[in-house]
Amino acid sequence: MSVQVRIPTPLRKFTAGQEIVSVDGETVGEALANLMSEHPELKAKIFGDNGEIRRFVNVFANDEDIRFQEKMDTKLSDGDQVSIVPAIAGGRS
Question: 11 near 37, Cβ under 8 Å?
Answer without folding.
Answer: no
